[in-house]
């Protein structure tokens, strides 16, 4: 098996685990507030993350080099987590993914003011087509616009903002700062909100929360190996396989069957997103490659970001040589 094929298969496995994580979110959402689910997800993720971070041999302190950008990214990630978890509990899985998949399109737009990126006509056309796909999924006027749709849009916007800020400051901030600040803030803020809406959880539901943490962490580690094995331009588009997992899991566990309009809109969004990823795979197309480098999962700050994990592994590899 060639390295690109191996990387693609690993990526498909990773996104299957991510989709399974979201199935648990949806199942728990029947009983608990999104704030409580996010809080326990972060709580169970912390031990896994700490074990990884204590191996970081890069010298320095935990004060961010760019406090304002770090704070804005932390807020964006926290909003994304609560919004995405709420959307999963109220909308069909495939529909949520279709809307959140607009994030790479929004990243392209945000790359202009934040990164100074020059977006040429073809990518603008891809963005416009992709946003039309979002409108197709939402069907304004034809179906009732629910709070879940708004939450999914907030998640897409928050994830895009968090991602583009990482592209701006990621080379100057320590990976441990990029991992810890959003997770710690999520733990504190969601913990305070959970105190207001708390519902006691039986042991089996706590086990599901712990399972979510393991699934998310395992998916993050597998996608790292995927990027190590294959070219980013092969691995990055695999993120869109999540909508296939969501369709299968939605039918199996929640009797959710996406209608034709949702599938058409999702196909438009995916096609435009894949086009942007492939275009940015060309060295002469994008100076900053705001979407491509380690695109995997929308930012929720309940688990480490893949780009930060990649940098941690790279720094340890440098220390060993």
How are the secondary structure elements laid out?
Elements: H1 3-28, H2 34-53, H3 67-90, H4 93-100, H5 103-115, H6 121-138, H7 147-169, H8 175-197, H9 203-229, H10 232-235, H11 242-254, H12 260-280, H13 306-320
3D structure, described in words:
This protein has 321 residues and is mainly alpha-helical. The protein has one domain. The protein is built from 13 helices and no strands. It has helices spanning 3-28, 34-53, 67-90, 93-100, 103-115, 121-138, 147-169, 175-197, 203-229, 232-235, 242-254, 260-280, 306-320. Helix 1 (3-28) runs parallel beside helix 11 (242-254) and helix 4 (93-100) crosses helix 7.
Radius of gyration equals: 19 Å
First-residue to last-residue Cα separation: 29 Å
Q: Biggest β-sheet: count, sense, barrel?
A: none
Q: Can you write the helix and strand succession as a string?
A: HHHHHHHHHHHHH
Overall 3D geometry? globular
Helix content: over 70%
How much β-strand is present in the residues? under 5%
Uncertain ranges: 316-321
Please tell me the total number of domains: 1
Number of helices: 13
**Which secondary-structure class do the elements indicate?**
mainly alpha
**Mean pLDDT score, rounded?**
82
Task: Tell me how many strands there are.
Answer: 0
Quick rundown:
The protein has 321 residues and is mostly helical.
What are the salient characteristics of this protein?
mainly alpha; globular; 73% helix; disordered C terminus; 13 helices; 321 residues
């Amino acid at each position: 098996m060639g390295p690109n094929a191996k990387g693609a298969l690993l990526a498909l496995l990773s996104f299957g685990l991510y989709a399974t994580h979201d199935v648990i979110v949806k199942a728990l959402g029947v009983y608990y507030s999104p704030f409580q689910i996010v809080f326990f997800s972060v709580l169970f993720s912390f031990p896994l993350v700490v074990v990884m971070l204590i191996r970081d041999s890069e010298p320095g302190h935990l004060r961010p080099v760019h406090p304002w950008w770090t704070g804005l990214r932390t807020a964006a990630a926290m909003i994304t987590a609560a919004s995405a978890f709420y959307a999963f509990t109220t909308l069909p899985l495939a529909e949520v993914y279709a809307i959140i998949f607009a994030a790479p399109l929004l990243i392209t737009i945000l790359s202009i003011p934040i990164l100074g990126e020059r977006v040429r006509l073809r990518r603008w056309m891809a963005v416009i087509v992709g946003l039309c796909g979002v409108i197709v999924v939402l069907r304004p006027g034809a179906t009732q616009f629910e709070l879940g749709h708004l939450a999914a849009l907030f998640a897409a916007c928050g994830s895009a903002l968090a991602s583009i800020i990482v592209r701006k400051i990621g080379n100057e901030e320590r990976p441990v700062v990029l991992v810890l600040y959003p997770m710690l803030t999520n733990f504190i803020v969601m913990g305070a909100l959970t105190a207001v809406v708390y519902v006691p959880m039986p042991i089996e539901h706590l086990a599901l929360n712990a399972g979510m943490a393991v699934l998310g962490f395992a998916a993050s580690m597998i996608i790292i190996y995927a990027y190590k094995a294959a070219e980013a331009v092969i691995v990055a588009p695999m993120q869109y396989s999540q909508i296939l997992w969501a369709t299968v899991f939605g039918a199996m566990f929640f009797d959710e069957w996406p209608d034709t309009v949702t599938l058409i809109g999702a196909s438009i969004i995916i096609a435009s997103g894949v086009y942007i990823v492939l275009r940015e795979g060309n060295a002469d197309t994008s100076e900053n490659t705001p979407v491509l480098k380690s695109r995997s999962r929308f930012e929720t700050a309940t688990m480490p970001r893949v780009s930060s994990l990649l940098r941690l592994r790279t720094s340890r590899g440098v220390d060993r040589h």
